[in-house]
Structures are given as C-alpha cells and as structure tokens.
C-alpha cells in the first residue's frame, strides 16, 4: 500500500466529520442530513483492507462536465430611497431567491502524488420574488407619509462561481476513487433590484392611503470572494472515462448597489450533483 493512501485512510473519519459539520451549518434541508452519513459509512467501509488494496491514480489530469441542484436560497434585504412628490420615499424590500439547477464544468492537473490543482465553473439561475414595506409621501400634504406594502415576482438572480481547488484523491479500488477538494471561490452575482415604484391614486378627503401598483427593476452586477469544500466519488468505466457524484458546500458574499438601492447578499449553498469525467 502506498504511503499517500495509508495517510488518507487514517484521516478519512476526521475529514468526513468536519465536512458533515460544515454542511449542517449551511443547510436546513433534510436531504443532506440523510445523504451524508450514508456516504460516509459507505466510504469508511470501502477503505477496509478486506475490500482490496488501493492503487495510485496513473492519470495526469482530468476534465469534467455535469450539473445538479443547489439547495436553499439566501433571502436578503435591501433599502431603497426614491424621490416622490418632492420628498423621499423609504422602502425596505426582502428578496427571496430559491433553489434550482446548476451547470458545472471543471478541470485539473496532478502536481504531486495524489494531489492536484483544479479550476471549476458553476452557474446557478433562479427567478426570485420580493416582499416590501415602507412609507411614501402624500401627494397633497407635506411631511405626512403614507404606509405601503407590496409584492412582486420575476426578479432575475444568477450566480457564477469560479472554484479554485486543491484536490486529494483516495483510490479505494481499481475503479472507485474518492476526491476531497476545497479552496477559494470567486462569485459573480447578477440580481434585479427595485429602482422605482409606481404609486396608485389616493382617495379623498385626506389621501392617506398608499398603494404600489408596479415596480421597476434594474440589473446589478458585482463580484465577491468566498470558499468551497466538497467530496466526490468517481467510478471508472474505462481507464480514461468515469462517472461521479459529489456533495459540495460553497459560501460567500457580494455587495450590490444602484443609485437608489444597496444590499449585501450571501451567495452559494449546499450542492448535490453528478458529472462525466475524462482522465488523461
């Protein structure tokens, strides 16, 4: 048995325990809580000497393409200030992105024994709704604001994550490889933000009732840094072709701003996916 495999075997329980702790902090969903202990038990059983001697991976690098589902959504709030009737309207708006599918493309090169360096690209798209409250000026009386509440849908939310990874591969058999990866992630977020509202007509005698009948959105783009950690299992169909399944957690934050709105948005989340891998 090679030294790298023996070292990985000794630390594998600790690595799975740490990964489980990170995932539980990131997700409130039941599926990851059920999936991860099962994956850990299978992997720990597979490294038992009775299952065969692991071998060094003979490849120099890989490319992969796949996808999956990003769980959860990071609700965030933004404050918007608008000029209406010569005064300032103040709005507090909650944006509610959900969960959805993502595309994943990655590649890497082995640099030393079972250690490789890689870069991956993941894109997640969703359409979010909003829920807002605030106060808007009275069209007839100065300094006599009216309260409003409103909802709307169809706000674009797109995350792109560029994962820069260190990957450590643990061959469990001639065909099964477990890879542990982690590193920094550069996020690019595109989010529609409310930049104006259309107010409905107030009714006499005091015109104190307020109503938002339409919203105007502007797309805001920005980048921010975060990180990722994941575990992947790959089954080799041939020496150069394999299929894999992975669990990954990404997390970061991005600052968004327009002329009327500013927000700090948490990005990333738990990801479950599968990929086709080509080794060379």
Overall description:
The chain is mainly beta and 280 residues long. The chain has one domain: Porin, CATH 2.40.160.20. Helix content is 15%, strand content 62%. It contains 2 helices and 10 strands. The chain has helices at residues 3-26, 30-46, and strands at 61-70, 76-84, 87-96, 100-112, 115-136, 146-171, 176-199, 212-236, 241-257, 261-279. Strands 1, 2, 3, 4, 5, 6, 7, 8, 9 and 10 form a 10-stranded antiparallel β-sheet that branches. Helix 1 (3-26) runs antiparallel to helix 2 (30-46). The longest helix is centred in the first third of the chain and has 24 residues, at 3-26. It is elongated. The relative contact order is 0.19. Residues 1-17 and 19-57 have low confidence and may be disordered.
Secondary-structure blueprint:
Elements: H1 3-26, H2 30-46, E1 61-70, E2 76-84, E3 87-96, E4 100-112, E5 115-136, E6 146-171, E7 176-199, E8 212-236, E9 241-257, E10 261-279
Helix pairs in contact: 1-2
Briefly say what this structure is.
The chain is mainly beta and 280 residues long.
Features of this protein?
mainly beta, disordered N terminus, ten-stranded antiparallel β-sheet, 10 strands, 280 residues, Porin, 15% helix
Largest sheet geometry: 10 strands, antiparallel
Structural class: mainly beta
- Total count of domains: 1
- The total beta strand count reads 10
How many individual helices? 2
Task: Give the termini separation.
Answer: 24 Å
CATH architecture descriptor text: Beta Barrel
Mean pLDDT: 82
Instruction: Evaluate the radius of gyration.
Output: 25 Å
Q: Could you please say which CATH topology applies here?
A: Porin
């Amino acid at each position: 048995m090679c030294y790298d495999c023996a070292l990985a075997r000794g630390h594998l329980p600790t690595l799975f325990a740490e990964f489980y702790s990170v995932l539980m902090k990131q997700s409130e969903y039941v599926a990851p809580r059920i999936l991860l202990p099962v994956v850990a038990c299978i992997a720990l059983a597979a490294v038992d000497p009775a299952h065969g001697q692991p071998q060094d991976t003979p490849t120099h690098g890989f490319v992969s393409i796949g996808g999956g589902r990003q769980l959860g959504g990071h609700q965030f709030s933004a404050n918007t200030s608008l000029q209406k009737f010569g005064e300032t309207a103040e709005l507090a708006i909650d944006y509610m992105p959900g969960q959805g599918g993502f595309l994943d493309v990655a590649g890497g090169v082995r640099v030393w024994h079972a250690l490789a360096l890689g870069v991956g690209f993941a894109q997640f798209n969703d359409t979010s709704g909003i829920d807002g409250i605030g106060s808007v000026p009275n069209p007839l009386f100065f300094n006599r604001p009216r309260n409003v509440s409103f909802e709307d849908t169809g706000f674009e939310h797109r995350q792109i994550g560029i994962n820069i990874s260190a990957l450590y591969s643990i061959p469990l058999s001639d065909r099964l490889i477990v890879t542990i990866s982690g590193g920094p992630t550069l996020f690019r977020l595109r989010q529609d933000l409310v930049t104006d509202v259309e107010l409905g007509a107030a009714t006499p005698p005091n015109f104190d009732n307020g109503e938002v009948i339409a919203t105007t959105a502007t797309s805001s783009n920005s980048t921010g840094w975060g990180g990722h950690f994941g575990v992947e299992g790959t089954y080799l169909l041939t020496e150069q072709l394999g299929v894999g399944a992975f669990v990954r957690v990404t997390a970061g934050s991005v600052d968004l701003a327009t002329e009327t709105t500013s927000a700090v948005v948490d990005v990333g989340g738990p990801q479950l996916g599968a990929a086709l891998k080509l080794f060379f």
